[in-house]
Backbone:
DNA sequence: TAAAATTAAATTGCACGCAACAGAATGTGA
DNA sequence: TCACATTCTGTTGCGTGCAATTTAATTTTA
């Protein structure tokens, strides 16, 4: 018998498995990323840079759905590790241009096995994974669009 | 043309939309939860207690996929707010029994609209939501099962 | 063109989230 | 029963994650 409070049950809210799943997946990355001396957030920054070589801070925030309060100190750490450089744009000194270094590009070859290792942790069929993927992006676009 | 590094693209890793989606959803909760003077994590703890009235710390950790390092200080805050009590089990003094107070139960009536308000943010059909839900739980059970 | 508004990044403060460790209570086996 | 292992909670340290504020550069406008 359903009652007034049913919607408040943990298992009736989509947020809960989403939140839990996200954390658990990140935990599964940890051992692989430890070998690269990267945290998960540092890893997704590096993934952007492996593709684009260069990006400014504002675009990076948008791409990763992160705040400058998160990225500012993190980018400094990646610079300390020698994987990126941070420079002000010549056109507009407000902009911070983040570029990948040779050392950062070299890391890509060590990282290339990470997705394969992770895929083993997630036991979905190709079709299920594709469905999950498209549903997540649908939610995401709905959330960020109507802001 | 696919290349060796394709799996390393942000858009080819399920973790990324999962992580982003989770954060964005929590952000959407914030204004509603602010009215209840709860954070998101405090809210999911209260949801468990609204259902069960009483639970010990270890089980709460398991239920919410959280660590004692997270829950320990958080439970103290909820106790300060008067929503829960913390007591040692009489049978086994190692166990911490968390119980909801009258004030905590009263909060449930104020919280009952939160899920409705949140549902508006996620523009999925009932079927899509059900699919997303079952896929997330499938991943989750796979992740925590083979630990 | 000088003042006001806007934009971008950095900083601060607070709340997780987890690994690693500490410490107390309980269970176990010789 | 006494040493030893196990279980459970709590603490510390580090890394996010975001709101709010600050600072600097640029653009707009009066």
Residues:
């Amino acid at each position: 018998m359903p009652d007034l409070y049913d919607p408040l049950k943990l298992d009736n809210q989509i947020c809960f498995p989403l939140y839990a799943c996200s954390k658990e997946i990140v935990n599964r990355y940890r051992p692989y990323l430890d070998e690269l001396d990267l945290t998960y957030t540092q890893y997704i920054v590096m993934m952007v840079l492996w593709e684009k070589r260069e990006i400014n801070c504002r675009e990076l925030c948008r791409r990763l759905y992160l705040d400058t309060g998160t990225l500012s100190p993190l980018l400094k750490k990646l610079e300390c590790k020698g994987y990126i450089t941070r420079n002000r744009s010549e056109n507009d000194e407000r902009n911070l241009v983040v570029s990948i270094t040779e050392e950062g590009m070299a890391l890509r070859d060590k990282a290339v096995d990470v997705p394969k290792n992770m895929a083993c942790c997630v036991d979905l069929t190709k079709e299920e994974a594709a469905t999950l993927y498209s549903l997540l992006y649908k939610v995401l676009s709905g959330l960020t669009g109507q802001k």
